[in-house]
Structures are given as structure tokens and as C-alpha cells.
């Protein structure tokens, strides 16, 4: 599937170049109408649609900023980042998220429209399956859009002419389209994917369950939404199995797939096939290269310092929770190069910074540094937003470590990560089902699902939950399990906890909102650039119109 991507890009660029030319002679005679007439070329259109998952999933700020689990980095002061802090928006902060989701919609619509036009040239079974894949991908993008912006323009076929009069459909109508697309997809998709990375029934069931669970909270909910959410989530669970953390994120990772992973954006081991590689490995590190012994080299390579885990997240883990062990959350920071530090000579690989789980006293820190040279900083949990020199220090999320990254790349350059990005995996399905059980008054069933994950994390005894789980229990377990995955902003919005949890746990949000947060922030602004292009679009209340 991946090998066709560059080729199809070349075809599109060729077609585009010809269509924009003022020359009356078409030297190649290749137009899209002439090229996309066979099953092979149709498959290329479908495969091209998948490629647009990658930039969408690398645009993480709308999934994680402004929530309880993720802080932005730095000293907490009056500087503002509206997506995280819920302060004054200028109007285009969500342009990238809007564009990336509509790019996926557009590609899916093009393949659906072109496929229908040449249906007679395609094997019926292949056509039915690919149509199901495209509908599910479009539903995924529209779910992101409707929860982020409220009602949005609902476009369900290829757009071939410049259009400047888009209007927003109601949120309820967008949900109806998403549910209809997913139900049709489910009827046409295979139970087991023949090619890991393609949409199959489990993906559609997981997504439909999530969509229906979300709609069950809305004023326009259907009476059967919650029950149908449970049924679909159970169906997705039945088509997957729990793996181990080492197989998902550790040394046992396999590029060939994992039975816990329901849907993933795949990356090739060959950079040329990726165009842009996975960037997850770089997002949760402070600037280690700015401290003695640091360098733009192994093991940290590129460090974007985009997010730091909040104190809420750090405090969630029991001492023996495997998910917060050194393999997946690093508290011992090592030197990347030989140097001279404040506590003696440093060799590459030496521990130089230590971030204890529990605060140490000044005398304990002195004793630790004397006994563990050349460690020169011991940083307590209440110091993660303080400057050491001119930079902050905090534990590094290490679950996305990618040993295939062996080069430093600057910002704006292909980060060259090769591991797949998990979009849905069984652990998330379990937490969605647990939430649905709680909503149905069956908290005992939710407890069982939570304990399955805790047992997998090597917890036992008093670290297992007893009694009937609450919504808080579910959200806390989801945080432990899914850091750096899933869309936390949408999860909290769905459960009516977004603004309260952000104000309670996000240091910058709390700083900017000592009282309450305006409910207008439950949707984000329609990009002003889109309103200028299409003046018939209306803005959400409280945001800039132009």
C-alpha cells in the first residue's frame, strides 16, 4: 500500500500542473479522468486517503492542550497559549486541525466519487470493502471536527470547483452522517483485515461505540445510543486481545502489528516511503542538550519540549506500576556526551539528573549527589515548572522511544520516526466500555475492566480497585494507560469534566482561571481564514468573526 503513495502524488501533481497551465496543448495527455479508470488506479486513490492520517495525527495540540494530563513547558507566568490556557484567541489557532481533518474528508470523498463512477471496473468484493474503509475514515475526521467546532460544513462527495459559500450543518446532522457512514461501513468491512493498517470491522465498531457514547450525553441523543455503544464496544473487544507493554512500546515491538492494536497509522522503515516520519518520540522531552553532558545525539536526539506531563498524571501511578517504570517514564537522565559538570567529570551514559518520585529533603539531596557523582541536579516534583539555568526539567515520557531513530533532525525536517502511531487499541475500547457501564449504573463491570489493565501493569493486592467504579476511576485509569494516545480533550468534553479538570490540574489553565472558565471554550473557533474565504460560514459565539 505504501509503495504507491509517492507515485500517486506524482500523478496528482502532474494533473494539477496541467490544469493550471495556460498552454492549450497537453503534452502528456494524462488527466485524472483518464487515469483513474481501473481497479489498480482506484486502489491508489484509496491508499492515498490513508496517507492523510499521518499529518492529522501529528497535529496533537488539539487533542492534548487544555486538559488535565498535559502541561505546556516553562515557568508558569502570564504568557498565553490559548489552546492550553483558554485565553484570548486570535481566530486561526485551529486552522491546522481544520485543514488536516478536511484533507482526510476530501481524499475520502474523491475516492468514493471516482470509485462509484468506475464501479463496473472493480471487483465487487474489493469495491464494497474499500467503500467501507473510506466511509470509516471520513467518519473519523467528521467526529474530530464536530466535537472540536460544533456543526461544520457537511461535504459527502468530491468537490471539483472552487466554492466560497460553505455553510455549517447542525451538530445533530453531522452526527447522523457519521453514524450512517459507520453503520454502512460495518456491513461491508471484513472481520479481519488482510493488510495490517487498513480499516476493518473492529475499527468501525470502536469508533461507532465512541460516537454513540458521546452522543448519549447530548440533548439530541437517541434512546438506544448508550446500549448500542456498549454493543459495538463489546464487538471491538471481541476482535482484539490484550498484549503486553513491552510488545506495544518496548523491546518486543514488532512492525508487523499487534493484536491489541485495532487501528494504526503505519510508517515504513524506509524514510523515502514516509515523506514525514513519526514525531511522537520527540514531544515529551525537555531540552537535555542545554545542560552539562547534553548533546544533539543518542539517546534523546530531537527534543521538542512540546508537552510535559502534569503533576496530576505523575501522582496517579502506584510505585510498582509498570507503565511508570524507568522503561516508559524516565526519571534518571543520562549524558549524551563527555563533559565537565558541576559534580565532576561526565562520561556519555552517566546519570546526570535525577527526578525522584517522592520529594527529597535538602540533606537527602546532598547525600544523593555525593554518592552518585556526576549527578548534578536532583529535581523534586514541585520544581517541574522552575528554571534550572534558563530551562525547566521534568521526567521524560519514554514509552515512545524509537531505537530506529539514529540521527538528529532540526525542527521542520522529517523527524524520521518509524514506529506506527496507534489510533485505537483495545485498552481504550475497555475504558470507553467502562465509562458506558458506569453510565448504565453497572460500575462493578467497569471495575473488572480497570483491574484487567492494572493487572497487565503488574499491579496486585491493594493496588487493584474494589467495589463499583466511578467516572473518576475510569478517567484516571485512562490517563495512566493512554498518555500520548487518544484524544483527551474530547474525552473530557464528552464526560462534562473538561473545564473543571483543566482548571484543577493544568498549571497554566489554573493560573489564568482562578475562578470559573467560560463555557464558550467547549468548542474552538472556526478558523478566521476559512470565514474570509467563505463568508457564509458563521463563527462560534465569543470568538473573532474576521
UniProtKB/TrEMBL annotation:
UniProt domain RagB/SusD: residue ranges: 259-543
Domain SusD-like N-terminal: 40-204
PROSITE patterns with a match to the protein in the record: PROKAR_LIPOPROTEIN
Extent of the signal sequence: 1-22
Pfam families documented for this protein: SusD-like_3, SusD_RagB
SUPFAM superfamilies per record: TPR-like
Transmembrane segments: none
Keywords for this protein: Cell outer membrane, Membrane, Signal
Membership in a protein family: Belongs to the SusD family.
Protein's name according to its UniProt entry: RagB/SusD family nutrient uptake outer membrane protein
Amino acid at each position: 500500500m505504501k509503495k504507491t503513495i509517492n507515485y500517486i502524488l506524482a500523478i496528482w501533481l502532474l494533473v494539477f500542473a496541467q490544469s493550471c497551465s495556460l498552454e492549450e496543448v497537453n503534452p502528456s495527455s494524462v488527466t485524472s479522468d483518464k487515469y483513474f479508470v481501473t481497479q489498480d488506479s482506484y486502489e491508489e486513490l484509496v491508499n492515498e486517503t490513508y496517507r492523510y492520517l499521518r499529518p492529522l495525527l501529528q497535529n496533537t495540540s488539539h487533542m492534548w492542550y487544555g486538559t488535565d494530563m498535559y502541561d505546556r513547558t516553562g515557568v508558569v507566568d502570564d504568557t498565553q497559549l490559548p489552546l492550553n490556557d483558554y485565553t484570548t484567541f486570535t481566530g486561526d489557532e485551529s486552522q491546522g486541525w481544520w485543514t488536516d481533518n478536511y484533507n482526510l474528508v476530501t481524499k475520502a470523498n474523491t475516492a468514493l466519487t471516482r470509485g462509484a463512477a468506475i464501479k463496473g471496473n472493480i471487483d465487487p468484493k474489493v469495491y464494497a470493502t474499500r467503500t467501507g474503509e473510506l466511509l470509516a475514515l471520513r467518519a473519523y475526521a467528521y467526529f474530530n471536527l464536530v466535537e472540536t467546532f460544533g456543526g461544520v460544513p457537511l461535504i459527502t462527495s468530491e468537490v471539483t470547483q472552487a466554492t466560497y459559500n460553505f455553510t455549517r450543518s447542525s451538530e445533530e446532522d453531522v452526527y447522523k452522517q457519521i453514524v450512517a457512514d459507520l453503520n454502512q461501513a460495518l456491513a461491508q468491512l471484513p472481520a479481519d483485515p488482510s493488510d495490517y493498517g487498513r480499516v476493518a470491522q473492529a475499527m468501525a465498531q470502536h469508533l461507532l461505540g465512541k460516537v454513540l457514547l458521546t452522543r448519549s450525553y447530548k440533548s439530541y441523543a437517541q434512546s438506544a445510543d448508550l446500549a448500542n455503544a456498549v454493543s459495538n464496544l463489546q464487538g471491538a473487544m471481541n476482535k482484539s486481545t490484550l498484549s503486553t507493554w513491552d510488545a506495544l512500546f518496548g523491546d518486543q515491538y514488532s512492525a508487523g502489528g499487534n493484536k491489541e492494536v485495532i487501528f494504526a497509522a503505519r510508517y515504513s522503515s524506509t524514510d523515502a516511503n514516509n515523506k514525514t516520519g513519526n514525531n511522537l518520540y520527540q514531544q515529551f522531552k525537555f531540552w537535555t542538550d542545554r545542560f552539562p553532558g547534553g548533546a544533539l545525539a543518542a539517546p534523546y536526539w530531537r527534543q521538542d519540549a512540546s508537552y510535559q506531563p502534569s503533576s496530576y498524571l505523575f501522582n496517579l501511578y502506584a510505585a510498582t506500576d509498570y507503565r511508570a517504570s524507568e522503561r516508559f517514564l524516565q526519571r534518571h537522565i543520562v549524558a549524551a556526551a563527555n563533559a565537565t559538570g558541576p559534580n565532576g567529570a561526565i562520561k556519555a551514559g552517566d546519570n546526570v539528573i535525577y527526578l525522584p518520585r517522592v520529594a527529597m529533603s535538602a540533606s537527602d539531596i546532598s547525600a544523593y549527589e555525593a554518592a552518585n557523582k556526576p549527578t548534578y541536579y536532583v529535581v523534586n516534583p514541585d520544581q517541574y515548572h522552575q528554571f534550572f539555568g534558563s530551562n525547566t526539567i521534568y521526567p521524560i515520557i519514554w514509552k515512545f522511544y524509537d531505537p530506529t531513530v539514529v540521527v538528529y533532525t532540526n525542527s521542520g525536517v522529517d523527524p524520521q520516526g518509524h514506529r506506527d502511531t496507534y489510533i485505537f487499541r483495545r485498552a481504550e475500547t475497555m475504558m470507553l466500555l467502562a465509562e458506558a457501564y458506569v453510565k448504565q449504573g453497572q460500575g462493578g463491570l467497569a471495575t473488572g475492566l480497570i483491574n484487567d489493565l492494572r493487572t497487565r501493569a503488574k499491579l496486585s493486592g491493594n493496588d487493584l480497585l474494589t467495589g463499583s467504579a466511578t467516572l473518576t476511576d475510569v478517567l484516571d485509569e485512562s490517563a495512566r494507560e493512554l498518555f500520548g494516545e487518544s484524544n483527551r480533550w474530547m474525552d473530557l468534553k464528552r464526560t462534562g469534566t473538561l473545564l473543571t479538570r483543566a482548571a484543577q490540574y493544568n498549571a497554566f489553565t489554573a493560573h489564568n482561571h482562578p475562578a470559573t472558565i467560560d463555557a464558550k471554550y467547549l468548542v474552538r473557533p472556526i478558523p478566521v481564514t476559512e470565514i474570509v474565504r467563505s463568508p457564509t460560514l458563521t463563527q462560534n459565539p465569543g470568538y473573532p468573526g474576521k
